[in-house]
Amino acid sequence: xxxxxxxxxxxxxxxxxxxxxxxxxxxxxxxxxxxxxxxxxxxxxxxxxxxxxxxxxxxxxxxxxxxxxxxxxxxxxxxxxxxxxxxxxxxxxxxxxxxxxxxxxxxxxxxxxxxxxxxxxxxxxxxxxxxxxxxxxxxxxxxxxxxxxxxxxxxxxxxxxxxxxxxxxxxxxxxxxxxxxxxxxxxxxxxxxxxxxxxxxxxxxxxxxxxxxxxxxxxxxxxxxxxxxxxxxxxxxxxxxxxxxxxxxxxxxxxxxxxxxxxxxxxxxxxxxxxxxxxxxxxxxxxxxxxxxxxxxxxxxxxxxxxxxxxxxxxxxxxxxxxxxxxxxxx
Length: 331
Ligand SMILES: NC(=O)C1=CN([C@@H]2O[C@H](COP(=O)(O)OP(=O)(O)OC[C@H]3O[C@@H](n4cnc5c(N)ncnc54)[C@H](O)[C@@H]3O)[C@@H](O)[C@H]2O)C=CC1
Ligand SMILES: NCC(=O)COP(=O)(O)O
Hints:
The chain has helices spanning 16-25, 41-45, 60-64, 87-106, 119-124, 132-139, 170-173, 176-194, 219-233, 250-253, 264-275, 310-329, and strands at 5-8, 35-39, 52-54, 69-73, 111-114, 148-153, 156-160, 200-204, 237-242, 258-261, 280-284, 289-293. The protein has 2 domains: 1-142 and 286-331, Isopropylmalate Dehydrogenase (3-Layer(aba) Sandwich); 145-282, Isopropylmalate Dehydrogenase, CATH 3.40.718.10. Helices cover 39% and strands 17% of the residues. By secondary structure, it is an alpha/beta fold. The protein is built from 12 helices and 12 strands. The structure holds 1,4-dihydronicotinamide adenine dinucleotide (NAI) and the ligand NCC(=O)COP(=O)(O)O. The site of 1,4-dihydronicotinamide adenine dinucleotide has 19 residues, from α5.
């Protein structure tokens, strides 16, 4: 296996190409290991004036990385207007994602770092998944219930148990099985990717005051507590259900390694409030390493040279570190 990482461009009309170019510019200062982008070279040229080199095979990136951003081309995304996504761009983003996952699965690269896509745009070109997480899980032959979307910042790691569904659907989507599966993926992922062999898990309640003994909702007593009992019986270190309003202050965060939250915003609001600039999205439970910045396509600032590459840089660093941890963990 090469020491390379692959970075899919994400939507060419979003900030993906700009933050990848800026990450390449920061490669020495940030100690980044060699990587190449997968995408339409024109999308990069339209938003970033650094040097690029179009490569024919991934391994060409090794000799080119020092002097230019290597780009493995995909289908032409047409005329890219930053901030104005279209279907050609969505096809380009999808092909970049597919190629990157394929290269990671084949062992050609150590990891895939995915640039941000607009889910609604990809769904218009036949992408039948809530997000990249579920797409990559299926491509790797892993049931989507058995992966966990980890958002990790320097002082907080969170996993949403339900993810991209409407808030009204959350109670019905929660089950003992889902919570147990996400928690297992989270615990094993902490050991494999971070070297935390016996992680402390904290599981949030769904309702105010974690239901206050059933007086404010029954999900804790009927679903969350039985799931926690199963996990404890399996030997996992689990606290909860914790009232969500008091589990994210500094002293509370020191008591766990990862917080499992019942729905998307319960998890992502605290981590983005604390670490929007440097949190990373990593999929746990995969045979490959996959990371991504914590943010989306930011169409509102695309093409304006305003995008910060810091979360992308953190995603590149975390992918490299996770690969190293896996070598140690798996011998
Ligand atoms: N991993 C992924 O591919 C993700 C994709 N998305 C997609 O992104 C699209 C837009 O979602 P939003 O909720 O608007 O979130 P967003 O993260 O794209 O933008 C939210 C706000 O943060 C700003 N922002 C984001 N990244 C920034 C950066 N690197 N530097 C400076 N400012 C930055 C944006 O300008 C905007 O004001 C949606 O279609 C969503 O599906 C959202 C989150 C993750
Ligand atoms: N809000 C997080 C997010 O949208 C991540 O989605 P994806 O990594 O599954 O594409």
